[in-house]
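user: can you give me the structure for this one chain? C-alpha coordinates are fine.
assistant: on it. calling the predictor now.
[tool input]
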Amino acid sequence: MNNMVPKSPIDTLRAAAFAALGMLWLVHAGPAAAQAPDRRGDCHIGIYQLRGGGDVDIGLTDGDHLRWRRKDGTTGALSQTADGSWTSTLGWTGRPDGKRVSFSDCRAGQITFDGVPGRRIALDVTETTFQGAGVRLAGRLVLPKGDSRVPIVVLVHGSEHFSAREFYTLQRQLPTEGIGVFVYDKRGTGASGGLYSQSYLLLADDAIAAMREAKRLAGDRAGRIGYQAGSQGGWVAPLAAKIEPVDFVIVGFGLAVSPLDEDREAIALDMTRRGYGPDVMAKAMQVADATAAVMRSGFREGYDQLAAVRKKYAGEAWFKHVHGDFSFFLLGTPTATLREKGPALLAGVPADYDPMPVLRNLDTPQLWILGEDDTDAPSAETARRLRGLIAQGKPITLAMFPHADHGIYEYETKADGERVSTRNPDGYFAMMRDFIRNERLEKHYGSSTIVGPAGH
Protein backbone atom coordinates (compact mmCIF):
# COMPACT_ATOMS: atom_id res chain seq x y z
CA MET A 1 0.00 0.00 0.00
CA ASN A 2 2.53 2.52 -1.05
CA ASN A 3 -0.62 4.01 -2.43
CA MET A 4 0.90 4.84 -5.77
CA VAL A 5 2.07 1.39 -6.76
CA PRO A 6 2.93 0.33 -10.28
CA LYS A 7 0.73 -2.44 -11.55
CA SER A 8 3.61 -4.89 -11.64
CA PRO A 9 7.22 -5.22 -10.49
CA ILE A 10 8.55 -4.52 -13.95
CA ASP A 11 5.85 -2.00 -14.87
CA THR A 12 8.42 0.73 -15.23
CA LEU A 13 9.49 -0.98 -18.45
CA ARG A 14 6.10 -0.35 -19.96
CA ALA A 15 5.96 3.14 -18.43
CA ALA A 16 9.25 4.19 -19.92
CA ALA A 17 8.43 2.43 -23.14
CA PHE A 18 5.17 4.23 -23.60
CA ALA A 19 6.84 7.53 -22.75
CA ALA A 20 9.52 6.80 -25.34
CA LEU A 21 6.80 6.22 -27.89
CA GLY A 22 5.11 9.48 -26.99
CA MET A 23 2.09 7.86 -25.33
CA LEU A 24 0.30 8.88 -22.12
CA TRP A 25 0.64 6.22 -19.45
CA LEU A 26 -0.99 6.02 -16.03
CA VAL A 27 0.66 3.78 -13.51
CA HIS A 28 -2.40 1.70 -12.70
CA ALA A 29 -6.15 1.80 -12.61
CA GLY A 30 -5.49 2.26 -8.90
CA PRO A 31 -2.40 4.45 -8.43
CA ALA A 32 -1.82 7.92 -9.72
CA ALA A 33 0.03 9.39 -12.64
CA ALA A 34 3.76 9.21 -13.05
CA GLN A 35 4.17 12.98 -13.03
CA ALA A 36 2.45 15.75 -11.11
CA PRO A 37 1.16 18.42 -13.51
CA ASP A 38 0.06 21.93 -12.63
CA ARG A 39 -2.70 21.31 -10.13
CA ARG A 40 -5.45 22.79 -8.05
CA GLY A 41 -5.76 22.06 -4.34
CA ASP A 42 -2.22 20.93 -3.56
CA CYS A 43 -2.21 22.97 -0.34
CA HIS A 44 -5.01 20.73 0.97
CA ILE A 45 -2.80 17.64 0.91
CA GLY A 46 -2.59 16.15 4.40
CA ILE A 47 -4.38 13.90 6.85
CA TYR A 48 -7.41 15.18 8.74
CA GLN A 49 -8.99 14.10 12.03
CA LEU A 50 -12.75 13.91 11.59
CA ARG A 51 -15.24 14.81 14.29
CA GLY A 52 -16.54 11.69 15.99
CA GLY A 53 -13.45 9.61 15.23
CA GLY A 54 -11.45 8.37 12.28
CA ASP A 55 -9.43 10.30 9.76
CA VAL A 56 -9.14 10.83 6.03
CA ASP A 57 -6.02 11.39 3.95
CA ILE A 58 -6.04 13.77 1.00
CA GLY A 59 -3.27 13.16 -1.51
CA LEU A 60 -2.19 13.60 -5.11
CA THR A 61 -3.46 11.52 -7.99
CA ASP A 62 -3.59 11.90 -11.76
CA GLY A 63 -4.55 15.07 -13.61
CA ASP A 64 -5.86 17.96 -11.53
CA HIS A 65 -7.72 15.64 -9.17
CA LEU A 66 -7.08 14.77 -5.55
CA ARG A 67 -7.63 11.39 -3.90
CA TRP A 68 -9.08 10.63 -0.48
CA ARG A 69 -8.23 7.47 1.41
CA ARG A 70 -9.39 6.01 4.69
CA LYS A 71 -7.65 3.34 6.72
CA ASP A 72 -10.46 0.86 6.11
CA GLY A 73 -9.33 0.80 2.46
CA THR A 74 -12.07 2.94 0.95
CA THR A 75 -11.00 5.63 -1.49
CA GLY A 76 -12.23 7.96 -4.19
CA ALA A 77 -11.08 10.55 -6.70
CA LEU A 78 -11.96 14.18 -6.07
CA SER A 79 -12.82 16.65 -8.83
CA GLN A 80 -13.30 20.35 -8.14
CA THR A 81 -16.58 21.96 -9.13
CA ALA A 82 -17.29 25.52 -10.19
CA ASP A 83 -18.26 26.54 -6.64
CA GLY A 84 -14.91 25.37 -5.26
CA SER A 85 -16.17 22.19 -3.59
CA TRP A 86 -15.06 18.72 -4.61
CA THR A 87 -17.13 15.73 -5.71
CA SER A 88 -16.02 12.12 -5.35
CA THR A 89 -16.11 9.05 -7.56
CA LEU A 90 -15.79 5.48 -6.25
CA GLY A 91 -12.29 4.02 -6.32
CA TRP A 92 -11.05 4.30 -9.90
CA THR A 93 -14.42 3.54 -11.50
CA GLY A 94 -15.29 7.13 -12.40
CA ARG A 95 -18.76 6.45 -10.95
CA PRO A 96 -20.09 9.08 -8.50
CA ASP A 97 -20.30 7.85 -4.91
CA GLY A 98 -22.30 10.77 -3.53
CA LYS A 99 -19.57 12.15 -1.30
CA ARG A 100 -18.76 15.86 -1.34
CA VAL A 101 -15.69 17.49 0.17
CA SER A 102 -14.87 21.10 0.92
CA PHE A 103 -11.81 22.78 2.40
CA SER A 104 -11.19 25.98 4.32
CA ASP A 105 -8.43 28.29 3.17
CA CYS A 106 -5.11 26.52 3.33
CA ARG A 107 -3.85 28.18 6.49
CA ALA A 108 -6.87 27.11 8.54
CA GLY A 109 -6.38 23.44 7.64
CA GLN A 110 -10.03 22.40 7.88
CA ILE A 111 -12.12 19.97 5.88
CA THR A 112 -15.72 18.86 5.60
CA PHE A 113 -15.76 15.29 4.36
CA ASP A 114 -19.12 13.81 3.44
CA GLY A 115 -20.82 16.22 5.86
CA VAL A 116 -18.37 15.63 8.74
CA PRO A 117 -15.98 18.45 9.74
CA GLY A 118 -12.34 17.78 10.46
CA ARG A 119 -8.99 19.42 11.05
CA ARG A 120 -5.52 18.72 9.65
CA ILE A 121 -3.34 16.60 11.95
CA ALA A 122 0.03 18.19 12.71
CA LEU A 123 3.07 15.96 12.23
CA ASP A 124 6.82 16.49 12.71
CA VAL A 125 8.34 16.64 9.23
CA THR A 126 12.06 16.85 8.44
CA GLU A 127 13.27 17.19 4.86
CA THR A 128 16.73 15.90 4.04
CA THR A 129 19.16 14.91 1.34
CA PHE A 130 21.51 12.01 1.93
CA GLN A 131 24.14 9.98 0.16
CA GLY A 132 22.90 6.84 -1.58
CA ALA A 133 25.05 4.47 -3.62
CA GLY A 134 26.96 7.14 -5.53
CA VAL A 135 24.05 9.61 -5.78
CA ARG A 136 22.34 12.19 -3.58
CA LEU A 137 18.80 11.19 -2.66
CA ALA A 138 15.94 13.36 -1.38
CA GLY A 139 14.15 12.05 1.70
CA ARG A 140 11.66 13.00 4.38
CA LEU A 141 11.19 11.79 7.95
CA VAL A 142 7.65 12.07 9.30
CA LEU A 143 7.07 11.48 13.01
CA PRO A 144 4.09 11.82 15.32
CA LYS A 145 4.17 14.96 17.42
CA GLY A 146 5.95 14.60 20.74
CA ASP A 147 9.21 13.14 22.01
CA SER A 148 8.27 9.49 22.57
CA ARG A 149 10.22 6.60 21.08
CA VAL A 150 8.44 5.16 18.03
CA PRO A 151 8.98 2.37 15.48
CA ILE A 152 10.09 3.63 12.08
CA VAL A 153 9.36 2.17 8.66
CA VAL A 154 11.32 3.02 5.51
CA LEU A 155 9.14 2.92 2.38
CA VAL A 156 10.88 1.04 -0.45
CA HIS A 157 9.63 1.70 -3.97
CA GLY A 158 8.22 -0.43 -6.69
CA SER A 159 9.39 0.16 -10.25
CA GLU A 160 7.70 3.53 -10.63
CA HIS A 161 9.29 6.65 -12.08
CA PHE A 162 7.47 9.18 -9.90
CA SER A 163 8.33 10.90 -6.62
CA ALA A 164 7.47 8.83 -3.55
CA ARG A 165 7.70 12.00 -1.45
CA GLU A 166 4.90 13.54 -3.47
CA PHE A 167 2.59 10.55 -3.77
CA TYR A 168 2.99 7.98 -0.97
CA THR A 169 0.19 8.43 1.56
CA LEU A 170 1.54 6.02 4.17
CA GLN A 171 3.91 8.84 5.11
CA ARG A 172 0.89 10.53 6.73
CA GLN A 173 -1.35 7.60 7.67
CA LEU A 174 1.18 5.64 9.74
CA PRO A 175 2.42 8.58 11.86
CA THR A 176 -1.14 9.13 13.10
CA GLU A 177 -0.87 5.57 14.49
CA GLY A 178 2.32 6.27 16.44
CA ILE A 179 4.73 5.09 13.72
CA GLY A 180 7.50 7.11 12.11
CA VAL A 181 7.95 6.97 8.33
CA PHE A 182 10.95 7.70 6.14
CA VAL A 183 10.06 8.25 2.50
CA TYR A 184 12.54 9.04 -0.26
CA ASP A 185 12.63 9.52 -4.01
CA LYS A 186 14.39 6.62 -5.68
CA ARG A 187 17.38 7.46 -7.87
CA GLY A 188 16.44 9.24 -11.07
CA THR A 189 12.99 10.27 -9.79
CA GLY A 190 11.59 13.33 -8.06
CA ALA A 191 14.29 15.43 -6.42
CA SER A 192 16.86 12.62 -6.23
CA GLY A 193 19.93 12.53 -8.43
CA GLY A 194 21.41 9.83 -10.58
CA LEU A 195 19.99 7.71 -13.37
CA TYR A 196 16.92 5.57 -12.91
CA SER A 197 17.83 1.92 -12.33
CA GLN A 198 16.20 -1.41 -11.68
CA SER A 199 19.38 -3.02 -10.34
CA TYR A 200 18.17 -4.67 -7.16
CA LEU A 201 21.57 -4.55 -5.50
CA LEU A 202 21.95 -0.85 -6.25
CA LEU A 203 18.43 -0.14 -5.00
CA ALA A 204 19.09 -2.22 -1.88
CA ASP A 205 22.16 -0.11 -1.15
CA ASP A 206 20.01 3.02 -1.50
CA ALA A 207 17.42 1.54 0.89
CA ILE A 208 20.15 0.84 3.45
CA ALA A 209 21.35 4.44 3.15
CA ALA A 210 17.75 5.61 3.69
CA MET A 211 17.44 3.43 6.79
CA ARG A 212 20.63 4.90 8.23
CA GLU A 213 19.45 8.43 7.51
CA ALA A 214 16.11 7.72 9.18
CA LYS A 215 17.92 6.53 12.31
CA ARG A 216 20.20 9.56 12.29
CA LEU A 217 17.37 12.06 12.00
CA ALA A 218 15.12 10.32 14.52
CA GLY A 219 17.89 10.12 17.13
CA ASP A 220 16.57 9.09 20.53
CA ARG A 221 13.06 8.73 19.14
CA ALA A 222 14.06 5.80 16.91
CA GLY A 223 12.70 2.47 18.08
CA ARG A 224 12.56 -0.68 15.96
CA ILE A 225 13.12 0.00 12.29
CA GLY A 226 12.39 -1.88 9.09
CA TYR A 227 11.14 -1.75 5.51
CA GLN A 228 7.74 -1.69 3.84
CA ALA A 229 8.02 -2.52 0.15
CA GLY A 230 5.56 -2.94 -2.68
CA SER A 231 5.84 -4.85 -5.94
CA GLN A 232 9.45 -4.71 -7.22
CA GLY A 233 10.45 -3.66 -3.71
CA GLY A 234 9.71 -7.25 -2.70
CA TRP A 235 12.97 -8.21 -4.36
CA VAL A 236 14.86 -5.20 -2.99
CA ALA A 237 13.86 -5.00 0.70
CA PRO A 238 14.79 -8.58 1.72
CA LEU A 239 18.13 -8.13 -0.04
CA ALA A 240 18.75 -4.90 1.87
CA ALA A 241 17.81 -6.61 5.14
CA LYS A 242 20.24 -9.44 4.42
CA ILE A 243 23.10 -7.01 3.71
CA GLU A 244 22.45 -4.94 6.85
CA PRO A 245 19.97 -6.27 9.43
CA VAL A 246 16.77 -4.47 10.38
CA ASP A 247 13.97 -5.43 12.75
CA PHE A 248 11.28 -6.30 10.21
CA VAL A 249 10.34 -6.39 6.53
CA ILE A 250 6.86 -6.05 5.04
CA VAL A 251 6.35 -7.02 1.40
CA GLY A 252 3.12 -6.29 -0.40
CA PHE A 253 2.26 -7.92 -3.77
CA GLY A 254 5.88 -8.94 -4.29
CA LEU A 255 7.35 -12.15 -5.69
CA ALA A 256 9.55 -15.05 -4.65
CA VAL A 257 10.23 -15.91 -8.31
CA SER A 258 12.36 -14.20 -10.96
CA PRO A 259 11.11 -11.42 -13.28
CA LEU A 260 11.17 -13.84 -16.21
CA ASP A 261 9.21 -16.43 -14.24
CA GLU A 262 6.74 -13.67 -13.36
CA ASP A 263 6.14 -13.03 -17.06
CA ARG A 264 5.65 -16.73 -17.77
CA GLU A 265 3.23 -17.11 -14.86
CA ALA A 266 1.29 -14.05 -16.00
CA ILE A 267 1.02 -15.41 -19.57
CA ALA A 268 -0.13 -18.78 -18.23
CA LEU A 269 -2.77 -17.00 -16.18
CA ASP A 270 -3.83 -15.01 -19.28
CA MET A 271 -4.54 -18.28 -21.06
CA THR A 272 -6.20 -19.98 -18.09
CA ARG A 273 -8.54 -17.04 -17.49
CA ARG A 274 -9.63 -17.19 -21.14
CA GLY A 275 -10.37 -20.90 -20.89
CA TYR A 276 -7.65 -22.20 -23.20
CA GLY A 277 -6.28 -25.73 -22.79
CA PRO A 278 -2.84 -27.38 -22.77
CA ASP A 279 -2.33 -27.09 -26.53
CA VAL A 280 -2.65 -23.31 -26.48
CA MET A 281 -0.68 -23.09 -23.24
CA ALA A 282 2.26 -24.81 -24.95
CA LYS A 283 2.15 -22.29 -27.79
CA ALA A 284 1.94 -19.39 -25.36
CA MET A 285 5.04 -20.66 -23.57
CA GLN A 286 6.90 -20.52 -26.90
CA VAL A 287 6.01 -16.84 -27.00
CA ALA A 288 7.30 -16.45 -23.43
CA ASP A 289 10.55 -18.17 -24.42
CA ALA A 290 10.99 -15.76 -27.34
CA THR A 291 10.42 -12.59 -25.35
CA ALA A 292 12.67 -13.92 -22.56
CA ALA A 293 15.50 -14.41 -25.05
CA VAL A 294 15.34 -10.72 -25.99
CA MET A 295 15.29 -9.68 -22.34
CA ARG A 296 18.20 -11.93 -21.37
CA SER A 297 20.33 -10.52 -24.18
CA GLY A 298 19.79 -6.94 -23.04
CA PHE A 299 17.75 -6.27 -26.20
CA ARG A 300 20.72 -7.17 -28.40
CA GLU A 301 19.56 -10.57 -29.72
CA GLY A 302 16.57 -12.87 -30.10
CA TYR A 303 14.62 -10.88 -32.65
CA ASP A 304 14.47 -13.66 -35.24
CA GLN A 305 12.89 -15.98 -32.69
CA LEU A 306 10.46 -13.24 -31.65
CA ALA A 307 9.49 -12.53 -35.25
CA ALA A 308 8.98 -16.24 -35.88
CA VAL A 309 6.47 -16.78 -33.08
CA ARG A 310 4.69 -13.55 -33.96
CA LYS A 311 4.32 -14.69 -37.57
CA LYS A 312 3.34 -18.23 -36.60
CA TYR A 313 0.65 -17.38 -34.08
CA ALA A 314 -0.53 -13.81 -34.73
CA GLY A 315 -3.60 -15.07 -36.62
CA GLU A 316 -4.77 -17.39 -33.85
CA ALA A 317 -7.51 -16.20 -31.49
CA TRP A 318 -5.55 -16.70 -28.27
CA PHE A 319 -2.56 -14.62 -29.36
CA LYS A 320 -4.26 -11.26 -28.75
CA HIS A 321 -4.75 -12.24 -25.11
CA VAL A 322 -1.02 -12.75 -24.42
CA HIS A 323 -0.13 -9.95 -22.05
CA GLY A 324 2.25 -11.25 -19.41
CA ASP A 325 4.27 -8.63 -17.62
CA PHE A 326 6.48 -7.37 -20.42
CA SER A 327 5.77 -9.74 -23.33
CA PHE A 328 2.89 -7.60 -24.61
CA PHE A 329 5.30 -4.71 -25.10
CA LEU A 330 7.90 -6.74 -26.96
CA LEU A 331 5.25 -8.27 -29.18
CA GLY A 332 3.69 -4.92 -30.04
CA THR A 333 6.80 -2.78 -30.59
CA PRO A 334 8.82 -2.60 -33.82
CA THR A 335 12.20 -4.30 -33.69
CA ALA A 336 14.07 -1.10 -34.52
CA THR A 337 12.46 0.64 -31.53
CA LEU A 338 13.29 -2.26 -29.21
CA ARG A 339 16.93 -2.25 -30.32
CA GLU A 340 17.21 1.51 -29.80
CA LYS A 341 15.17 2.02 -26.64
CA GLY A 342 15.33 -1.38 -24.99
CA PRO A 343 18.72 -1.20 -23.21
CA ALA A 344 17.77 2.06 -21.49
CA LEU A 345 14.30 0.81 -20.65
CA LEU A 346 15.72 -2.33 -19.07
CA ALA A 347 17.79 -0.11 -16.78
CA GLY A 348 19.70 -2.90 -15.07
CA VAL A 349 16.88 -5.25 -14.14
CA PRO A 350 18.29 -8.74 -13.41
CA ALA A 351 15.81 -10.75 -15.45
CA ASP A 352 16.83 -14.12 -13.97
CA TYR A 353 17.22 -12.92 -10.40
CA ASP A 354 16.33 -15.72 -7.97
CA PRO A 355 15.18 -14.30 -4.62
CA MET A 356 15.04 -17.67 -2.86
CA PRO A 357 18.68 -17.84 -1.63
CA VAL A 358 18.16 -14.54 0.19
CA LEU A 359 14.82 -15.63 1.64
CA ARG A 360 16.19 -19.01 2.76
CA ASN A 361 19.01 -17.29 4.65
CA LEU A 362 17.16 -14.29 6.05
CA ASP A 363 16.31 -14.36 9.76
CA THR A 364 14.50 -11.02 9.80
CA PRO A 365 10.78 -11.31 10.67
CA GLN A 366 8.79 -10.76 7.48
CA LEU A 367 5.14 -10.15 6.63
CA TRP A 368 4.17 -10.96 3.04
CA ILE A 369 0.76 -9.72 1.87
CA LEU A 370 -0.49 -11.09 -1.45
CA GLY A 371 -3.64 -10.84 -3.53
CA GLU A 372 -5.08 -14.18 -4.61
CA ASP A 373 -6.29 -12.69 -7.91
CA ASP A 374 -3.09 -10.84 -8.87
CA THR A 375 -2.91 -10.92 -12.66
CA ASP A 376 0.35 -9.01 -13.13
CA ALA A 377 2.39 -10.75 -10.45
CA PRO A 378 0.53 -14.05 -10.02
CA SER A 379 0.80 -15.09 -6.39
CA ALA A 380 0.25 -18.86 -6.39
CA GLU A 381 3.86 -19.99 -6.80
CA THR A 382 5.17 -17.26 -4.51
CA ALA A 383 2.66 -18.31 -1.83
CA ARG A 384 3.66 -21.96 -2.26
CA ARG A 385 7.34 -21.11 -1.80
CA LEU A 386 6.67 -18.92 1.22
CA ARG A 387 4.59 -21.64 2.87
CA GLY A 388 7.53 -23.98 2.36
CA LEU A 389 9.85 -21.56 4.12
CA ILE A 390 7.34 -21.14 6.95
CA ALA A 391 7.24 -24.92 7.35
CA GLN A 392 11.04 -24.88 7.65
CA GLY A 393 10.79 -22.45 10.54
CA LYS A 394 11.68 -19.20 8.78
CA PRO A 395 10.18 -16.11 10.49
CA ILE A 396 7.77 -15.40 7.63
CA THR A 397 4.07 -14.67 7.95
CA LEU A 398 1.92 -14.90 4.83
CA ALA A 399 -1.42 -13.10 4.46
CA MET A 400 -3.62 -13.72 1.42
CA PHE A 401 -6.52 -11.48 0.46
CA PRO A 402 -9.16 -13.05 -1.80
CA HIS A 403 -10.59 -11.03 -4.70
CA ALA A 404 -7.54 -8.73 -4.63
CA ASP A 405 -5.42 -7.89 -7.67
CA HIS A 406 -2.00 -6.24 -7.83
CA GLY A 407 -1.55 -3.50 -5.26
CA ILE A 408 -3.94 -5.44 -2.98
CA TYR A 409 -6.82 -3.74 -4.75
CA GLU A 410 -10.31 -5.16 -4.84
CA TYR A 411 -11.96 -4.72 -8.22
CA GLU A 412 -15.02 -4.80 -10.41
CA THR A 413 -15.01 -6.66 -13.73
CA LYS A 414 -16.40 -4.82 -16.74
CA ALA A 415 -18.33 -6.49 -19.55
CA ASP A 416 -15.16 -6.77 -21.65
CA GLY A 417 -13.31 -8.55 -18.83
CA GLU A 418 -11.21 -5.55 -17.81
CA ARG A 419 -10.80 -5.02 -14.08
CA VAL A 420 -11.31 -1.65 -12.41
CA SER A 421 -9.93 -1.09 -8.91
CA THR A 422 -12.36 -0.03 -6.21
CA ARG A 423 -10.48 -0.08 -2.88
CA ASN A 424 -7.97 -1.83 -0.64
CA PRO A 425 -9.55 -4.56 1.47
CA ASP A 426 -10.53 -3.84 5.03
CA GLY A 427 -7.74 -4.98 7.34
CA TYR A 428 -4.86 -4.34 4.96
CA PHE A 429 -3.66 -1.14 6.63
CA ALA A 430 -4.31 -2.45 10.15
CA MET A 431 -2.27 -5.57 9.44
CA MET A 432 0.79 -3.54 8.45
CA ARG A 433 0.35 -1.15 11.38
CA ASP A 434 0.22 -3.97 13.93
CA PHE A 435 3.23 -5.81 12.46
CA ILE A 436 5.32 -2.64 12.52
CA ARG A 437 4.36 -1.93 16.10
CA ASN A 438 5.05 -5.28 17.70
CA GLU A 439 5.55 -8.01 15.08
CA ARG A 440 2.29 -9.66 16.05
CA LEU A 441 -1.06 -9.90 14.31
CA GLU A 442 -4.59 -10.43 15.51
CA LYS A 443 -6.55 -13.48 14.38
CA HIS A 444 -8.64 -11.67 11.79
CA TYR A 445 -8.00 -8.86 9.30
CA GLY A 446 -10.96 -8.54 6.99
CA SER A 447 -11.26 -11.50 4.62
CA SER A 448 -7.56 -12.45 4.69
CA THR A 449 -6.13 -15.83 5.62
CA ILE A 450 -2.92 -15.79 7.64
CA VAL A 451 -0.25 -18.44 8.20
CA GLY A 452 3.05 -18.07 10.02
CA PRO A 453 4.43 -17.11 13.41
CA ALA A 454 3.02 -13.57 13.65
CA GLY A 455 -0.49 -14.89 13.13
CA HIS A 456 -0.43 -17.39 15.99
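assistant: here you go. The chain is about 30% helix and 25% strand. The mean pLDDT is 90.
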